[in-house]
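PROTEIN DESIGN WORKSHEET
SECTION A - STRUCTURE
LENGTH: 105
TOKENS:
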């Protein structure tokens, strides 16, 4: 007798696992997804003239933007190509610089 209590006992034993998953979702997974979305937007919005920091620690000014790469000037006449995904932050946003400006040196 008492065979009807098996389902409710199973749910009671399963509740801590469900609660743990909910806590992990709100404390770990959801904030991580938000950071990934913000990083993706930051990389998509990088423009010529922005000062950026790469994940390797290089700081420079963006001189050219392609679909997957950017060219960063890290010193006068020293330019490196960087994969967009390796940007860690955009320090200063600037107005877009026209692509065909020829400034005499």
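SECTION B - SEQUENCE
RESIDUE ASSIGNMENT:
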């Amino acid at each position: 007798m008492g065979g009807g209590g098996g389902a409710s006992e199973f749910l009671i034993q399963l509740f801590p696992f469900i609660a743990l998953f909910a806590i992990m979702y709100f404390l770990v997974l959801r904030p991580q997804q938000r950071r990934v979305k913000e990083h993706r937007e930051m990389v998509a919005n990088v423009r010529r003239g922005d000062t950026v920091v790469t994940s390797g620690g290089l700081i420079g000014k963006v001189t050219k933007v392609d679909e997957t790469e950017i060219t960063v000037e890290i010193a006068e006449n020293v330019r490196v190509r960087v994969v967009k995904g390796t940007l860690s932050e955009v320090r200063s946003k600037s107005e877009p610089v026209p692509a065909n400006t020829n400034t005499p040196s």
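SECTION C - NOTES
The first strand starts at residue 51 and ends at 54.
The helical segments are 5-44.
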